[in-house]
Write the structure tokens for this entry.
Amino acid sequence: MRIILLGPPGSGKGTQAQRLVQRHGIVQLSTGEMLRTAVAAGTPVGLRAKDIMASGGLVPDDVVVGIISDRIEQDDAKRGFILDGFPRTVPQAQALDELLKHKHMKLDAVIELRVNESALLERVETRAAEMRARGEEVRIDDTPEVLVKRLASYRSQTEPLIHYYSERRKLITVDGMMAIEQVTREIGRILHAIGALETKQSKKAPAVKRGAGKTAPKKAAKKVAKGARKALKRASKVVRKAAKKGSDRPAKKVAKRRVKA
Ligand code: ADP
């Protein structure tokens, strides 16, 4: 199963991704997590990303495409993955299409978590309070001021992906305002309906580390940085190639079945 979770900050992508990881034994690839790990470890990628992330902007496409390109080749991603926070721009989506094509991998679905914008600030504030209560470091970008900027980035750069994937018959929209459990159930129902779970559910899910690995951030960040460097070369080629093709390409191949969520 290969899926993308799409939605604004605070829409519940991370929460739902973790639940899918537990249930189906596939990895969650969160570019936000990977970048935060790289920032914490002070890698070259981290140094490039640090200020951009703190201000709520988007890290350059070639950096994130490089990270993802390398990551989806690793063994633990062979059985499938959930992309959380990637792609976030049309060129990233085009680059991903090229990468998947090149690797003979098929994307099952793009699940959009639709939420009312008015609820997002409260959600992000709650997340920050919960992290504080657990003694975890609160994300530097989880402040009302930066959230406004992150939302603006989402609207201008990420929202066009709704059209992009809808044109390619990959988009399934779920009401992200429902309770967490209900959203999970709905996603499960959809994945089942499109056949994304068919062959993979028989095996018991192995313990899978989240993102780049929360338990060993330095080691994971080194791996991410090393992979990103290697993949950067390849990725910029892919981004250039995808950009050349343009975003107005007609949808040729479509998902076999479309589920109305
Ligand atoms: P959110 O909860 O806002 O969706 P994430 O944890 O996914 O946040 O990402 C945090 C920050 O990391 C983003 O605001 C952005 O600066 C950077 N980032 C993450 N993924 C990408 C991406 N695919 N492209 C560009 N920047 C990204």
